[in-house]
Amino acid sequence: MNLADKPTVFSGAQPTGQLTLGNYLGALQNWVAMQEEYNCLFCVVDLHALTVRQDPQALREQIYDLAAVYLACGIDPAKSTIFVQSQVPAHAELAWILSTFTQMGELERMTQYKDKSQRHRTNINAGLFTYPTLMAADILLYGTHKVPVGADQKQHLELSRDVATRFNGAFKPIFQVPDPLIASSGSARVKDLQEPSKKMSKSAESDLAKVMLLDEPKTILKKFKKAVTDSQGVIAYDEEAQPGVANLLNIWCAATNNSLENALEHFSHNMYGKLKVESGEAVNAILAPVQERYRDIIADRGELIKILDNGAEVARQRAEEMMVKVVDVLGLPPRRSL
Ligand code: ATP
Ligand code: LTN
Q1: Nearest-CA neighbor of 99 among 146, 160, 53?
Q2: Is the pLDDT of residue 76 over 60?
Q3: For the CA of 151, the nearest ligand
Q4: Of 35, 104, 138, 333, which one's alpha carbon is 20 to 30 angstroms from that of 148?
Q5: Domain 3-187+300-330, what fold?
Q6: 26 lines ligand 1 (CB under 6 A)
Q7: How far apart are the C-alpha atoms of 11 and 162, rounded to whole Å?
Q8: Does ligand 2 come within 6 angstroms of the Cβ of 91?
Q9: Topology of 207-295 in CATH?
Q10: Domain extents in the chain
Q11: Which residues carry out catalysis?
């Protein structure tokens, strides 16, 4: 197949624990839809996960588990490249190079760095700070055109674009400047069910706050029934005044493929209870087939490893082609003097 035929898509998630409904609606669901039109690479970004202390045994399981979730969501290894970041050394190598094209001030402005350094005060490591340069390397290595992510990653994407433009300007245009592809408004930022002013995050402490992709249907329903709303008693869409209700409406729309207009009409004479139950049921309906496929995939570790080995091989070759150009323009010795 000629790679030049289709534009390239790259995206990834961190193996830092079970994926949430936010990850699914904000990212993975869109990845699946892009497989026909694009040449897609979907990566388990395990090196990024190291910026927060991980238990080694749990981390290895989480890496395989995340790859299994990618497959269960509908990422097809016959169409897309699925691989683990640490198995393609060029990611870390290019990240170093790009860190010399990134200013401290740019990194200091990153809100994810500010949030995570607040939350992990005893481990504000240099990797947490330079995290966006590794993300830029992930993307730029493959000549990526589009990066489907949730709204929280927009700032990192902008930095990747700035670094690519700066590098291209200093030498010659070897990097494609990537465009973010942020999911349609509501699902781009699924909110925490208990504190709907915050994004739903897999690392949230409260279990009730986050809907996990692999939660039992009755657990999901319970979480929706306990979702925080407000005391206004009217179903209207107002992110400021009624963030909990707005979040449930967004989730219902994303899960049932309905517009906000339809949602407001559908719930026009209802109370919050109905909105909560119907949102939970709609989520259960979209997650049921994912959960069923996941159970089959995770049971066959050998097959999963084979898929990841193949993916890493394909990714290594493509990454190497870019590294040949990178070392050339920088004046480093050629990659291989065969
Ligand atoms: P952590 O909580 O450990 O920082 P995370 O869930 O924010 O993890 P990733 O696993 O790296 O981060 O995210 C994978 C994808 O899911 C990214 O594209 C991210 O933008 C998207 N995403 C994460 N949370 C949400 C959310 N609440 N709503 C929509 N998209 C989200
Ligand atoms: N930083 C992202 C995960 C991530 C990513 C990437 C996403 C790492 N490298 C490259 C898209 C493209 C996150 O925290 N969600």
Answers
A1: 160
A2: yes
A3: 1
A4: 104
A5: Rossmann fold (3.40.50)
A6: yes
A7: 18
A8: no
A9: Tyrosyl-Transfer RNA Synthetase (1.10.240)
A10: 3-187+300-330, 207-295
A11: 116, 199, 202
Alpha helix stretches (DSSP H) within 54-122: 56-73, 90-99, 104-108, 111-119
Tokens of 162: 């700035």
Helices assigned H by DSSP within 226-300 = 243-256, 260-266, 272-298
Q: How many CA within 13 A on the CB side of residue 214?
A: 15
- Tokens linked to 320: 């190497």
Q: At residue 338, does pLDDT exceed 50?
A: no
Report the distance separating Cα 170 and Cα 4, nearest Å: 26
With the most atoms of ligand 2 within 8 angstroms of its CB, the residue from 153, 155, 190, 199 to mutate is: 153
Q: 156 in ligand 2 pocket by Cβ < 6 Å? A: yes
Q: Roughly how many angstroms between the first and final C-alpha of the chain, as a whole number?
A: 27
Residue 150 phi/psi, 5-degree rounding, is: -75, 165
Buried b (16+ CB within 10 A) or exposed e, 79-94: ebbbbbbbbbebbebb
Does the Cβ of 14 fall within 6 Å of ligand 1? yes
Closest by alpha carbon to 70, among 44, 47, 108, 89? Answer: 44
- pLDDT value, residue 2: 57
Give the nearest ligand 2 atom to 150 CA.
15
Span 109-142, pLDDT tens digits: 999 999 989 988 999 999 999 999 999 999 999 9
> What spacing in Å lies between the alpha carbon of 22 and ligand 1's midpoint?
7
Residue 21 DSSP one-character state = H
Q: What is the 3-state composition of the chain as percent helix, strand, coil, each rounded to the nearest 5? A: 60, 10, 35
Chain segment 239-291, per-residue pLDDT in tens: 999 999 999 999 999 999 999 999 999 999 899 999 999 999 999 999 999 99
What pTM was estimated for this model as a whole? 0.93
The pLDDT assigned to 3 comes to 56
Instruction: With H, G, I as helix, E, B as strand and everything else as coil, classify residue 179.
Output: strand
